[in-house]
Specification:
Helices cover 52% and strands 12% of the residues. By secondary structure, it is an alpha/beta fold. The protein folds into 2 domains: 167 residues, NAD(P)-binding Rossmann-like Domain (Rossmann fold); 127 residues, Orthogonal Bundle (N-(1-d-carboxylethyl)-l-norvaline Dehydrogenase, domain 2), CATH 1.10.1040. 43% of the residues are buried.
Length: 304
């Protein structure tokens, strides 16, 4: 595959797309475009903020999906999990035959397989891409897993862009299965931290609890992790909730109940919609903001 004249299109231009593009090697790229639903309504705060970001990165913002992919031979889909299949459905009839469609969304394997069917039926080449770590600060070097029948071509392209991709042998859904099962732990741990430190703060014993956990599991730096995880949830909880909905869908497909992951959905969504601006270095201030936002009453005040 020719890697000296790549025409890229990002569908969705949030944190992931911005991180990938800002770090990747642009020398093989002859054109780049972007489309995001936030750009459909000119003059909104969200549209203006995205336009400013894209202008700074010299990425043209297109008013429609059709315009955005009109020249693309590489489409990189980085939207919320609940929109991934809708994007595949919308893109399929508009793209050129042979277009590589890199689905980087955090979806259940069944959702990825449905998207693959739509893209392949339209003559595209679908690749299941699992993003295996936060995109910042690693940006283009964030580990990616690739699965499906077109992984060799995708690997050549991503290598040319200085991305960090590894082939995971197997059909579409293999890479996303690894991602989904991993998210049970990663996003679930974030939810457990939120519940633990909030309860500790309400009971007035948060510092003792974290100290006890550090004593039992030294080197984990529980206080630092608490601040970091709360910040992740307040900033990205809505997107994480969508991802965990996909995890629940996957677990149901496996014949498993998902009470823990369903609760993770609720915690991620609750923090994501809270409007709290968290300081990753100070879990206590974040939990105090949670107490105020959720109108909770600390135990000492109840006992007065």
């Amino acid at each position: 595959m020719n890697t000296t004249d790549l025409k890229l299109c990002f569908i969705g231009f949030g944190e992931a797309a911005e991180a990938f593009w800002s770090g990747m090697d642009h020398s093989p790229v002859s054109s780049v475009s972007s489309y995001d639903v936030l750009t459909e309504t000119p003059g909104t705060t969200a549209q203006q903020a995205m336009q400013t970001r894209c202008d700074a990165l010299q990425v043209p913002v297109c008013a429609s999906l059709e315009v955005a992919i009109s020249e693309a031979d590489i489409v990189i889909s980085v939207v919320t999990a609940d929109q991934a299949l809708a994007v595949a459905n919308a893109t399929a009839p508009l793209m050129h035959k042979g277009t590589l469609f890199l689905d980087c969304n955090s979806c259940a394997p069944q959702t990825k397989q449905a998207s693959a069917g739509v893209i392949e039926a339209a003559g595209g080449r679908y690749v299941d891409v699992a993003v295996m770590a936060p995109v910042n600060p690693a940006r283009n070097r964030t580990p990616l897993l690739l699965s499906g029948p077109h992984v060799d071509d995708a690997k050549v392209v991503l290598d040319a862009l200085a991305m960090n991709a590894t082939i995971e042998p197997g059909p579409v859904g293999t890479a996303s299965s690894i991602k989904m099962v991993r998210s049970i732990m990663v996003k679930g741990m974030e939810a457990l931290f939120a519940e633990c430190v909030l309860a500790g703060r309400l009971a007035g014993v948060d510092t003792q609890v974290l100290a006890s956990l550090e004593h039992s599991h030294p080197g984990f730096d529980w206080e630092k992790r608490a601040g970091y995880n709360l910040e992740r949830m307040t900033q990205h909880g809505i997107r994480r909730a969508s991802e965990m909905e996909e995890v629940c869908h996957f677990l149901n497909h496996l014949g498993l109940e998902e009470p823990l992951s369903a609760s993770t959905v609720r915690w991620q969504d609750r923090l994501g919609h809270s409007g709290i601006v968290a300081d990753p270095a100070n879990y206590a201030d974040t939990t105090d903001a949670m107490i105020k936002t959720f109108q909770l009453t600390p135990m000492k005040e109840v006992q007065r």
